[in-house]
Structures are given as structure tokens and as C-alpha cells.
Amino acid sequence: MPRAPSEIVEENANKGFKSYAEPSSRLSDQAGVPFYEEFNLDGKPFKGVNVVTMELSFAANFTTEAAAGWSLDSWRQEATTP
Predict the structure, then answer these.
(1) What mean pLDDT comes out for the span 31-47?
(2) CA separation for the pair 77, 46 (Å, rounded)
(3) Gap between the Cα atoms of 52 and 36, Å rounded
(4) CA of 3: how far to CAs of 9, 10, 11, 17, 52, in Å?
(5) Burial 47-79 (b: 16+ CB within 10 A, else e)
(6) pLDDT (tens digit, 9 = 90+) per residue, 40-59?
(7) Gyration radius of the chain over CA positions
(8) Are 60 and 24 in contact (CB under 8 A)?
(9) What string of H, E and C letters represents the secondary structure of the chain?
């Protein structure tokens, strides 16, 4: 005999449901090369240089519970003459 909808709701009302996140990853990168008349890098002065700025960011969750993952953030600047 089919059960009434209210019976199904009542039966499941007190059950705890786990919330799961999907495995995911994220990658972001940026770079720029502006010109500076004067620029200081690590305490060293530079004149008339292009400054290369690079940024990389990566993150990943490997499990549905988001209990295992890995991330990396890296940033770097270099001064080069034109």
C-alpha cells in the first residue's frame, strides 16, 4: 500500500543531511610591464626601467567534503631596461 506524503515527510524530518561541496579548482594569473622613470626594488634604485610584475594563484579541493586540497600564491617583480 502506498504511503501518505505526510508519513514520508515525518520520517525524513529528523534525519541529518550532510552538505557536500563539489571537487573544484581555481586558477588566476596576472602580468604587467609598466615603465618607471625611477623605481626601487629590494633597496636598489633603478632609473628608466620597465617593471615586470607577475602573479599566480591556484587552489584545488580534491574531495567532495573539501577536506583535502592544495593552494599556491606566488608574486614576483623584476626590473628590466628598455
Answers:
(1) 92
(2) 13
(3) 11
(4) 10, 11, 11, 22, 69
(5) eebbbeeeeeeeeebeeeeeeeeeeeeeeeeeb
(6) 988 999 999 999 999 999 98
(7) 27
(8) yes
(9) CCCCHHHHHHHHHCCCCCCCCCCEEEEEEEEECCEEEEEEECCEEEEEEEEEEEEEEEEEECCCCCCCEEEEEEEEEEEECC
pTM: 0.56
- In angstroms, the CA 27 to CA 57 distance is 6
Name the one residue in this structure whose C-alpha cell is 534525519: 15
Strand pairing report for 35-41 and 69-80: unpaired
- At position 69, the amino acid (one-letter code) is G
* Nearest alpha-carbon partner for 28 in 77, 78, 74: 74
CA separation for the pair 3, 6 (Å, rounded) = 8
- Asked whether the beta carbons of 46 and 35 are under 8 A apart, the reply is no
